[in-house]
């Protein structure tokens, strides 16, 4: 008993030194790993440090700076401490990834960085959920209730994933060509401005195109009454746009190189461009597209090992490091956790933890229209 108390105290002292700034992040992670191996401390990694039955966990995400942040601040330290390899895959869109998962054998895919509550609902509808034991994820208690409630509404008996971050799909623009005043005056309709023909971009995602079509026609994206007007707006945008971009990396390249001057874009990717010195503005129009992402454990996965990884990723030290790396605020409740200096400056950050200033997609509404709308968007994108 004395040894266990001493070991726990050692871990807590290391944590205190890190929080006080006496240790940098890399040194801290190395020391807690050494403490766990040498003294048997029950760190978040210890239970699976020698688990021979689980040698790897597959994680699929969005690539680019997001995946880089996960690799550096979560996967590499997790593997070092547990011996479990994180096989890191990427995808450019949720639809194609879901198709791959559905066509695969159980266990081929484990954890996915899913975007939006509607994705969570889709996986549930295709019976791809698991039942997480939250007692094995104690850091879950630090997550904002406002992010958890939408998932509990879909799977009230047990969660199959944990919220991890949030952001917005707002309007990004080259401030050398478009002023802040013009952007705020025109809002979403700037994407239909013929003056910028050939310098407009847009994501090739049917939900985003329809959401912005609703804004451009003065409609509530969660209660569209005139779909023909929305399709007309999408056609106008299509004809004015240089191209549809298909990944965050392509979005950043198009803006950084000046190939496009205005597009909707992901808040974290635009923040990354700004930090790189590019004069790119960002504006969330009224009813702009707010979203949250979760770490979803797919049916057939080694649940216990996945729970261990999720708990590690939700630990404040890890979660904050990843958030600073990918430029999206974490799911941690800012009223419970000190998130440091950088995160409160990120686009979409809500210091209250309520997220009442963001508009999220209604999963029932959007999933109910997916078959019809995604098919029609495919036709419109091809020029019809």
Written overview of the protein:
- The protein has 384 residues and is of the alpha/beta class.
- The chain has 14 helices and ten strands.
- The protein has helices at residues 2-19, 25-39, 64-82, 94-103, 117-125, 145-154, 180-186, 206-216, 227-240, 248-256, 267-275, 303-314, 316-326, 363-381, and strands at 56-61, 85-90, 111-115, 161-174, 200-203, 241-245, 262-266, 280-283, 289-297, 359-360.
- Strands 1, 2, 3, 4, 7, 8, 9 and 10 form an eight-stranded mixed sheet that branches. Strands 5-6 form a two-stranded parallel ribbon.
- Mean pLDDT is 88; it is low at 1-8 and 32-52.
The main pleated sheet reads as: 8 strands, mixed
Kindly report the name of the CATH homologous superfamily of the largest domain: Periplasmic binding protein-like II
- H and E order: HHEHEHEHHEHEHHEHEHEEHHEH
The tally of strands reads 10
Low-confidence stretches: 1-8, 32-52
The DSSP helix count reads 14
Tertiary shape: globular
CATH topology of the largest domain: D-Maltodextrin-Binding Protein, domain 2
> Could you say what the CATH architecture of the largest domain is?
3-Layer(aba) Sandwich
The separation of the N and C termini measures: 73 Å
What is the averaged pLDDT score? 88
The secondary-structure class comes to alpha/beta
Assembly of the depicted chains: single chain
Question: How many domains is the backbone divided into?
Answer: 3
In helices, the fraction of residues equals 40-55%
β-strand percent reads 15-25%
CATH class of the largest domain: Alpha Beta
Rg over alpha carbons = 22 Å
